């Protein structure tokens, strides 16, 4: 690889990312999961059923699943789809590594589903 070509590649990598940073209140829980306090401050509607695909992606990025978040975008998972996901969907349908997939389902998808059902059953 020539020096000028290599410098062009390095220059591209060094440019800052244009994605807006989200301010998120994170709290560590005893079970090792990280809770993301969900509010309009995070740029998402409070009800996951109203989330767009990028809201879902940003939720998982801010929850510490940067690498896995893109799978939700590739599969076009919006909030309504997220709330319909089964354990099997997360473990196999997103083609994620098993460890992160288990954490995503148990500590994020399942609690979001439970909270949504609880808030909308009254």
UniProtKB/TrEMBL annotation:
The SAM domain sits at 51-99
Q: Which InterPro entries match?
A: PcG_chromatin_remod_factors, SAM, SAM/pointed_sf
Tell me where on the tree of life, at the top rank, the source sits.
Answer: Eukaryota
Pfam families with a match to the protein in the record: SAM_1
Q: Which PROSITE patterns match?
A: SAM_DOMAIN
- Alphabetical GO biological process terms: negative regulation of DNA-templated transcription
Q: Which SUPFAM superfamilies match?
A: SAM/Pointed domain (SSF47769)
Q: May I have one GO cellular component term?
A: nucleus
Identify the CDD domains for this entry: SAM_Atherin-like
User: What GO molecular function terms would the record report?
Assistant: chromatin binding; histone binding
What is the protein name given in its UniProt record?
A: Sterile alpha motif domain containing 13
From which source organism is this entry? Otolemur garnettii
Highest lineage ranks of the organism? Eukaryota, Metazoa, Chordata, Craniata, Vertebrata
């Amino acid at each position: 690889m020539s020096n000028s070509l290599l410098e062009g590649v390095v220059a591209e990598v060094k440019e800052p990312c244009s994605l807006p940073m989200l301010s998120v209140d994170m709290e560590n829980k005893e079970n090792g999961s990280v809770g993301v306090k969900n509010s309009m401050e995070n740029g998402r509607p409070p009800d996951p059923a109203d989330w767009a695909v990028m809201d879902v992606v940003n939720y998982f990025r801010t929850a510490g699943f940067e690498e896995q978040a893109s799978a939700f975008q590739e599969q076009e998972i919006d909030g309504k789809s997220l709330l319909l996901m089964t354990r099997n969907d997360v473990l196999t349908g997103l083609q994620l590594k098993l460890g992160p997939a288990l954490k995503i389902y148990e500590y994020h998808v399942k609690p979001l589903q439970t909270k949504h059902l609880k808030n909308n059953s009254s």
